[in-house]
Amino acid sequence: MSEIEQVLSGVGPRLKALRRERRMTLGALAESTGISQSTLSRLESGQRRATLELLLPLARAYQVPLDDLVGAPAVGDPRVRIEAKETNGMTTMALSKRPGQPQAYKLVVPPRGEVDLKVHEGYEWMYVLDGRLRLVLGDRDMVLGPGEAAEFDTRVPHWFGAADDYPVEVLSLFGKQGERAHLRAKAGKGGKG
Length: 193
Hints:
The protein is an alpha+beta fold. 26% of the residues lie in helices and 27% in strands. The strands form two sheets. Strands 1-2-3-9-4-7 form a six-stranded antiparallel beta sheet, with no helix packed on it. A hairpin with a 2-residue loop joins strand 1 (84-87) and strand 2. It starts with a helix and ends in an 18-residue tail after the last strand.
């Protein structure tokens, strides 16, 4: 028996068990779904093959996801497993796996020593998740808090670290030279998006 046949053969008993669990009669279920009692009976006994047109009203009547009725096989583990790496005293977690640009990272930046300005090719967008980030960009020295963002050309001399004695968590998008983060806001009522 194929995997599909196995799944389909389990639909009838699942439907019957769910109806009994809910203490519903075939008549009451027929009334709430618009499906005849004889069709419901044949579905439950396996004499009629389940179709989407029959399963959708049943899922609504039982207030369960369609997957619960068909016993769909579980999907793979949805958790994202991120490897943390130490880079220049920071904990770096790559959030994007595909090659190319831009790349996304979560950074945990500790309090750092002396300001040591660096220059390299690229463009960076940083968003502070938690803590306070000190960013030195050329001759500007600023502190960003949670919810604040900065973007800059990395050819401008720059340095960043925790602004106080606690680490700061930052979301960073790093792209090739000239590539900027473009954010699209959803339009309000009456506006176009």
